[in-house]
Amino acid sequence: MSSTVGIDEIDVKILYELIRDARAELKGIAKSCGVSVTAISNRVKRLRAKGVITGAAQFMNMARLGYLHPASVGIKLNSSQELQAIKAIKEQTRVISLSRSIGKEDLSILLVAKSIEEIDNLKQSIRKQAGLNRITINIWNTPSFNLENVDIQPTRA
Amino acid sequence: MDRIDQQILEELTRNPQAPFSRIAKRIGVSPITVQRRYKELKEEGIILRSSITIDLSKIGYQGKAILMITNAPDQDETRTTDALRHMKNVFIVTNVVGECDVIAVAAIKDFKNVTDLINEIRKIPSVDQVEVAFTADSAFPVDKEFNNIFSTQRDRRLNNV
Model-level pTM greater than 0.90? Predict the structure, then answer.
């Protein structure tokens, strides 16, 4: 586990502004925090250097771009086949994220496909290469991202 | 959408925070053009929101919970999603077609957090069942590689396979 990074109220405010809009201007953030643009810029640099901010994501209208089917895939594995399964899945270009999980599933995958057929092909190739026990697919309909819901509090390192 | 729009989208997927001036230089149009096109793409609903990505483990979270929710048969489905959208730390909510009815993703600090959240969800009158998978993956809201999915280069690679 990576250790916690100390952040104060101003850092929290900066994080929320940049969650709301990754392109938010530092000038505006500085104004709402009551500190200088340089101070904000230094804080953003620090948050990046410490690995709190890892990058940025641009959400697009997937359907308008031809990606009709975001889907989450849950996989329950036979024992000892985790590594093969992860390798097989990582080769799939449509996979957005893959994480090990505990509970209902062993591996949780999020992917975006252009057709149902594509999802089916992915499923079959994963199944073939990884000898999995059970695979469940849930196709997302109108997801909403309420990113501001995440509760960020000042922390001490 | 024309070629310039596509190039702007491509640049934004490469770096969502790239200044318009840099995008303009890379694709050989004026910054004003990029700014105008960006605004239009937003108005047309092609570009949605952007967000920084955060490593939740650095700010006190242990990981994420993926909640798979089944609705009660005779209830209005929208009540579940409406309630979830206002819950603390629940940052993705979607109706799904598949094994369950709704999937929600929440940031999780500790076990108490999880039990509180599940109890809160069970109290929603339209909810029948809640199943959960935990992951120590602490990327919020998505992996920083998320944008790659929209890259046309990626598509080309896929077509060549």
Answer: no
Which stretches does DSSP call E strand in B75-135?
Answer: 90-97, 102-108, 127-135
A53 interfacial to chain B (CB closer than 8 Å): yes
Contact A150, B107 (CB under 8 A): yes
Subunit contact B91:A100, Cβ cutoff 8 A: no
pLDDT tens digit at each of 157 positions of chain A: 468 999 999 999 999 999 999 999 999 999 999 999 999 999 999 999 999 999 999 988 888 888 777 888 888 887 677 777 787 777 776 777 888 888 888 888 888 888 888 888 878 877 776 666 788 889 888 888 999 999 999 988 7
Query: For chain A, where are the alpha helices, taking DSSP H only?
Result: 9-20, 26-33, 37-49, 82-90, 116-130
Q: What amino acid occupies position A139?
A: I
Of B46, B145, B161, the CB nearest to A61: B46
CA distance, residue A98 to nearest chain B CA (Å): 9
Q: ipTM of the predicted structure?
A: 0.89
